[in-house]
Design a protein that fits this description.
Elements (H helix, E strand, L loop, with lengths): L1 H12 L11 H21 L15 H9 L6 H4 L19 H15 L6 H4 L3 H9 L3 H6 L3
Helix pairs in contact: 1-2
């Protein structure tokens, strides 16, 4: 997910055409600048950017997902009460020209792929369960791999 934020920052920074679809090019660029600035500042404040080196020790998926979803990405269009309701754009609908909606959708997609074994499934097992398995290991293997 760190890579997702970094990729959006890099893509957005180098997009020549504003994400904002205002007719006034100057206002569209100002809107984009505010969006990019709020994304950068929010990511830095949440310790999501710059991306830490791999591997990510002591980082739980749910904590990182919460931090990313809590980013307050805003645009000039969000702040200007006189602007028309946001239209669909490359990121979808919603605040920050749909950035928040896009991020939530991507996190949900990752969450569905992460379904599976939980560490808590193994926490309640007694050491006897492991010793019993170890005792049933063929003698040649147990001798080569002492506990």
């Amino acid at each position: 997910m760190y890579a997702m934020i970094k990729a959006h920052l890099e893509m957005y920074k180098h997009t020549p055409v504003p994400i904002c679809d205002r007719q006034d090019r100057e206002m569209a660029e100002a809107c984009d600048s505010m969006l990019l600035g709020s994304l950068y500042k929010g990511a830095i404040m949440a310790n999501i950017y710059p991306t830490p080196p791999v591997p990510y020790p002591n980082v739980a998926f749910r904590d990182l997902a919460r931090d990313i979803q809590s980013l307050k990405v805003t645009s000039l269009c969000d702040q200007n009460k006189m602007s028309p309701p946001p239209t669909e754009n490359i990121w979808g609908f919603g605040s920050g020209h749909g950035f928040s909606t896009l991020i939530r959708a991507r996190i949900l997609k990752i969450e569905t792929r992460l379904k599976g074994l939980e560490l808590s499934d193994f926490v309640d097992q007694k050491i006897d369960d492991f010793v019993e398995v170890r005792a049933s290991t063929p003698p040649g293997i147990a001798a080569e791999n002492p506990v």
